[in-house]
Amino acid sequence: MQRIVENFFDTGKLGRLDGARKDIDNYAGLECYMGYGKDAEACASISVIFNIDGVHHILSYHYIPDAEHGGEINLKRILGDIISICRVVKVRKFIADPWSASDMMARVRELAADTHELRMFARNISPLMIALKEGVDGLRMLHRGEGPTLDAITNVSVNESRHGDFFPRKPNASVSISPLVSILMALEGWSARDKIDPFTYIKH
Fold first, then answer.
1. In which domain, by residue range, is 67 found?
2. Burial 42-74 (b: 16+ CB within 10 A, else e)
3. Minimal CA–CA distance to 116: which of 56, 192, 183, 42?
4. N or C: which end of the chain has fewer CB within 10 A?
5. Which stretch of DSSP H or E encloses residue 37?
6. What is the pTM of this model?
7. What is the pLDDT of residues 56-98, one digit of tens each?
8. Residue-wise pLDDT tens digits, 144-198
């Protein structure tokens, strides 16, 4: 038995959180985690999250189906953006759900990148939903004010299972939650930081 949780995120605070630096170059040399999300409509998003003095800075990039690529997203363009980002900042891990993002995971692994698979199970996602909520409520989750990011957080439908797990659902087909999924994936990196083995950065 599940119930829909109304107003899971305090959306009234989102406008006050538009404080992340607009360009990746402004974070040059800093450590971060990169998350990737893709939904059934083939929309995709990358989110890069930094932690500066206990505040998460989220930079998101969004991709929609391209008519020149048969109505699919341009994976080559996304991969190019990933490489460009990795040239500027220190990406510790690329994190994605292997079920929905197997195509991109395979391409990133070809770069000899450090990847991490996080399956979209409620027990995996619920702690990250709570972490994001606490960050928004506590004004410790800065973003760049992109429409897709705000739409995904504002319009997402949040279900609570009988076990008390929170899970995001699309309220309707017109709203992509890939930006939210990519943020949750990147947050997993920071949440699991103390449990991660020694690493090498993705270098290009």
1. 3-192
2. bbbbbbbbbbeeebbbbbbbbbeeeeeeeeebe
3. 192
4. N
5. strand 31-38
6. 0.90
7. 999 999 998 877 777 788 889 999 999 999 999 999 999 999 8
8. 888 888 888 888 889 998 888 999 988 777 778 899 999 999 999 998 765 444 4
Residue in the block written with tokens 């998460």:
56
Q: Taking the mean position of all CA atoms in its chain, how far away is CA 152?
A: 11
Report the C-alpha gap between 187 and 3 in whole angstroms: 25
Q: Which two tokens stand for residue 50?
A: 């930094």
With respect to residue 33, please indicate whether it lies within any of the assigned structural domains: yes
DSSP H helices, the chain, are 75-88, 102-109, 122-137, 147-155, 178-191
What CATH number corresponds to the domain at position 170?
Answer: 3.30.420.240
Q: Is residue 9 part of a domain?
A: yes
